[in-house]
Amino acid sequence: MTIYDSLLAFTLAAALLTLTPGLDTALVLRTASVESRAQAFKVALDINAGCFIWGAMVAFGLGALIAVSELAYSILKYCGAAYLCWLGVNMLLSRGGGLTAAAEGETPRAKQSGFIKGLLGNLLNPKMGVFYVSFLPQFIPHGQPLIAWTFGLVAIHVVLGQTWSTVLILATRPLGRFLKRSAVVRWMDRTTGTLFILFAAKLALSKR
């Protein structure tokens, strides 16, 4: 496989992965609709920061530990499931304000929660580590530097992810007033919270 073929194949595969609805999509959409676009961009950026951290672990061999060690995988898996369940329960119990205050009354602590939600949600998902360990090496041409190519491929994935997140965030703008109504906010919190709990259960019961 030539360098061009590798980049093209990876870009197509990463694009399909990015467009597949999942936890990240739900989190970005919910944040953009219920809180603010600025907060949603923070969440998207921090999800992508998690991708770079996973990429670094793969490049320096730490990701392989998650792939081969049942104990390491299980610890990370259950921590991630517990965290997702905690997010989901908080959304279900909220009264329309979500996990953080609406844009008019955000506190510094609330602004930091976007970072926590986006980054931890990514890092506590061992599937990401296993995916990167098994997926990235397939697109690195023989004889090419492992570390440089790993970070390069992750960068492509991040650019695609950020672009898609931006599209989702901007798509909520025409419906901004409707999406910020109390009844709609409560419905979105209940729906997203339920999805998070289902993701948590799926993660907890998953196998490598």
Structural class: mainly alpha
> Main beta sheet, described?
none
The rounded distance between the terminal residues' Cα atoms is: 28 Å
Number of strands: 0
Order of helices and strands: HHHHHHHHHH
**Number of helical segments with 4 or more residues:** 10
Report the sheet-strand fraction: under 5%
Which percent range fits the helix content? over 70%
Global morphology: globular
Q: What number is the mean pLDDT?
A: 78
Radius of gyration: 18 Å
* Poorly predicted spans: 97-112
Characterize the structure shown.
With 208 residues, the protein is mostly helical. It has helices at 3-19, 23-34, 37-59, 62-68, 70-93, 108-123, 126-135, 146-171, 176-179, 182-205.
